[in-house]
What we know:
Elements: E1 2-3, E2 8-9, E3 20-22, H1 23-26, E4 33-39, E5 54-69, E6 72-77, E7 81-84, E8 90-94, E9 100-108, H2 116-119
Antiparallel strand pairs: 1-2, 3-4, 4-9, 5-6, 5-7, 5-8, 5-9
Amino acid sequence: MENQKNYNVAENGPWDSITRVVLRDTLSLTGAEISANRIPAGKASPFAHAHKRNEEIYLFTSGKGLFWLDGTIIPVSEGSTVRVSPACVRSLKADENESLSFFCVQVEAGSLIQATREDGIISDIKPAW
């Protein structure tokens, strides 16, 4: 990991070798929990869970599978994005023939007070590509 004054960089290895990498400590995150995940073909999350305060945003990057949300099952695949409220009980299962890879971003529900347009600052500095 490369730690600089204003950014951190982590190399996590080849995605096909990852089952779960939690980036909170690796990147010194202060406002979100992010994990990179891969469920092998035919396997499922080892448990269903909910949260006390945090919503989760799932961004599926490859594969396909099923997402169990409060008893409703929806198909997910590369390009799917799902927001889950804290109280919703959830679990995931990869397709029988291919693994399911995704990022999960966890933040406190209702905590967003500003977003890109309100928080962004356009810089006069131009990168010399």
